Amino acid sequence: MRSVGILAVVLVLIAVFGPVLAPYDPTAINIPNRLRPPGGEWILGTDALGRDILSRLLHGARWSLGLAFLVSLLGLLIGTAIGLIAAQGGVLADWIAMRVTDTFLAFPELIAAVVIAGVLGASTGSLIFALTVTGWMRYACVARGIGLSVGTRGYVVQARLAGLAPLAIARWHYLPSLLPSLTVVWTGMFARAILGISTLGFLGFGVQPPMPEWGTMLLDARIHMRSTPLQMIWPGIAVVAAVLAVNLAGDALRDALAEQDARE
Fold this sequence. Notes:
74% of the residues lie in helices and 0% in strands. It has 264 residues and is mainly alpha-helical. The chain has one domain (2-17, 47-263): MetI-like (MetI-like fold).
């Protein structure tokens, strides 16, 4: 548990302070030093335009992890709101909210995100919108399921009979019960968002050049995959390590919550 926490903290620190630690400007073109192997002045080598790969990885962490955090947070807010509306709004609201959720769940998330980003055009805004629109449904299902259970408890029924506003009931009675489960779901969706951002970046729908992002770095390096494969290996390792760290943190958190529930 402690090692997983340390790994997650290191990931956050890299995302926050990576640009400060970068030895070079990640967008500075240096053609005479293009495709340099790792070692010496360039620890991880340089790309086809002579840009330092380590610097681009450190700067790219802020884009890849920061955008993944934003996308997963927006999905959490939207999905929780829809789930609470379904749980609190009565039979009609529940039916409408769940039919909308089922409709979105019917489409594969990544394929739908690619289609939306392709229609809107390649940009960071399109990337955020596409992944948010296709990533809120699991939160809604979890929030609705727990909300329906909480809504039958005596203190919630009494709060309704006392005339307490729905928002106040959600704030004081629903959210404390929802937060542990939604936090575990959020870690999984955070990891999926990292993969989604990298995938869309590799397909050309993500963060646009010259800004470094791990998926975009994979796209730039694919031409030289045979001659200098390390150009693709480094950002690939970064994506895998980030997803693994987030998933391990989510598993550890789930186990900790399960042990706490068992003690209670």
